[in-house]
Amino acid sequence: MEVGSVIRCLRRFGTNFSSTAAGFHTSSPLLLSLADKISDDMKAAMKTRDANRLKPLRAIRARFVNKMKETGADSLSDNDATAVLRSLAKQYSESIEMYEQAKRPDLVASEQAELKIVEIYLPKVADEATTQKWVDEVLAEIGGKANVGRAMGLLMKSRKGAVDPKVAKKLIEDRLQEISRT
């Protein structure tokens, strides 16, 4: 049986498969890994000639490829992809701050647009109230030996990816100051 006839048969039953050089992969958004989703979105941006969307997607894809080369893996797990995206988002944020200090609004706008596209693919982080609850739990667990570094380490280890580190650090520092005053 030919590959094409298999694909037509599968499409008849509602499964949308497309052949690639690596074999078959489903084009259902529910089953794609984060790296595959970004690759598919990059291809769509190329087809529609959306340069504003294509530039950051290419940067993301390049970072993914570099990470795969570093680890020697054939594919990238969603956790690794998320770590790469967080790193890239941090880089864009730092660039925005530097361009603002240099009074370059044109570059600030460009970096902000690219950061928004990166943030689309990042998992949502907890709000401040939820983070405060988690901070209180970690500080209660540590007890009297609490310091910012130790609390941040435990919090980030237990809630990896769900907490914004800047917000968490600020909340921990504020809570430790409250505790030291009493």
Automatic annotation (TrEMBL):
It comes from Rhodosorus marinus. It comes from the Eukaryota. It holds the Pfam family YqeY. This is Altered inheritance of mitochondria protein 41. Coiled coil: none annotated. GO terms for molecular function: carbon-nitrogen ligase activity, with glutamine as amido-N-donor. PANTHER family: ALTERED INHERITANCE OF MITOCHONDRIA PROTEIN 41, MITOCHONDRIAL (PTHR28055:SF1).
